C-alpha cells in the first residue's frame, strides 16, 4: 500500500483553508504544512486540524515546494497550494491509487486544475488556460520542482525515463482567487 505525504504551502491562507484541508487529510498519511509568514488565522486553523506548521521564508514557489518535500516521511508526495481544493471524485481516485499495486517511481500524475475568479469559472488567466494540468503527485526520489522563478514545474531528476506522466481525467482541483489584487500581486507570477 502506497504511503503519501501531502505537502501544502500557506501564507495568509485562512480564507479557504477549512475547505482545503479535509479532502487532503483523507488521502494523506502525513500532511506537511510550510508557511512563509502568515499574519492571519492560518496557523490557528492548522492547529485545529492537528497539523504542525513548518516556517520557511519564501523565495520562489518551486523552492518552497522542494523544501516541503524534504520534510516528507514518504517518497510519494502530493504537492498542493492553499487555494486548491480536491473534489470528492479525486479523493476516491487517489485512495484507489494508494490501495493498488506498487507504483513505478518514475511515474507522475498530472491533475486538471480549474480556475475560478470571484466565484466564477474562467477559461484563461493569461498565460494559463483553464483547465491546466500541472504534475502534482510524484515520487520525490525521481522528480522535483525546477528552480524557475515563474511558471515552475515538476521535472525528472534522474534521466529521460522520468518523462512519463499519467493524467487523471476527472476535474478535481479548484483554484480560487477571490480578489483581483490576489491575481496581480501573487509572488512568483
UniProtKB/TrEMBL annotation:
Residues 5-115 form the Glycosyltransferase 2-like domain. Pfam families: Glycos_transf_2 (PF00535). GO terms for molecular function: transferase activity. Keywords: Transferase. The keyword Transferase applies. It comes from the Bacteria. Belongs to the glycosyltransferase 2 family. WaaE/KdtX subfamily. This is Transferase 2, rSAM/selenodomain-associated. It comes from Raoultella planticola (Klebsiella planticola).
